[in-house]
Amino acid sequence: MLDWTDRHCRYFHRLLTKQTLLYSEMVTTGAIIHGKADYLAYSEQDHPVVLQLGGSDPKTLADCAKLGQQRGYNEINLNIGCPSDRVQNGRFGACLMGEADLVADCIKAMNDAVSIPVTVKTRIGIDSHDSYEFLCDFVDTIANKGGCHIFIIHARKAWLSGLSPKENREVPPLNYPRVYQLKRDFPQLTIVINGGITTLEDAAYHLKYVDGVMIGREAYQNPAILAEVDRKLFDPQAAITDKVAVIKALYPYIEQELSRGARLGHITRHILGLFQGMPGARQWRRYLSEHAHQPRADAAVVERALSFVQG
């Protein structure tokens, strides 16, 4: 979720769910080491939270993993599933599925540098390398040589050329049974499934066959799904989060961030889809879109937008 699940997004999502494991957007090692901004910033409320890294040099990945642990992240994840040209040009992302030994070296270096879990997010294949045997060999190499025990598997292969990142999320067919088979063949590993999952009912079905479920785009575009996840997937006694109360709880954070120089629109872009399907949702989105980017816009803009949903 490059450029999407930033620290503002994660703060908002944590208000909706206490149990779900949250991921940072993918951050390159170069940005962390050489960038002027603080790419490791997050709110203490985010926990449990994973730092997702992009890179292919074992030493710099180890250095960044160590920095992530020092900052308090709960896990480190190496993304080798992103197929964008920008990522490939930096020699990281999905193209690394063709270099299993290098990935294993990267994971081992990170594991040697930190005591928190180091995980891998990947696809089921790339280009013509899309057989089940290829996937098994890849996972076996990373697990045995790198010491990785947790794999997040996007159940589509990636085309490294010819498709846009958006098309790579939609055109290659989903193959959930292949991920289920991977769990059966590697029962000692934690296998998390990803790709095309849009409901908690779907998530519950997948959990019959794998250890975890990652939901990306749907959770961003329709964050209300997170308001019910604690009760439906973690604790039947948990309360369903009140979405209006979540927005009101966001006001102090908004004012705090604005006082530090943030712009309201950078925060509100993450909350536009919260009331999807409810009366007033369109007016909520329109008002925020038209007013959040104006000079001196503050939490009062969000409060006014909320009045359309509350009636």
From TrEMBL:
Function statement: Catalyzes the synthesis of 5,6-dihydrouridine (D), a modified base found in the D-loop of most tRNAs, via the reduction of the C5-C6 double bond in target uridines. Specifically modifies U20 and U20a in tRNAs.
Gene: dusA
Family the entry assigns: Belongs to the Dus family. DusA subfamily. Belongs to the dus family.
Domain DUS-like FMN-binding residue range list: 1-306
Organism of provenance: Candidatus Regiella insecticola 5.15
A GO term, aspect molecular function: flavin adenine dinucleotide binding
Record-given protein name: tRNA-dihydrouridine(20/20a) synthase
Required co-factors: FMN
Enzyme class, first EC level, given as a word: oxidoreductase
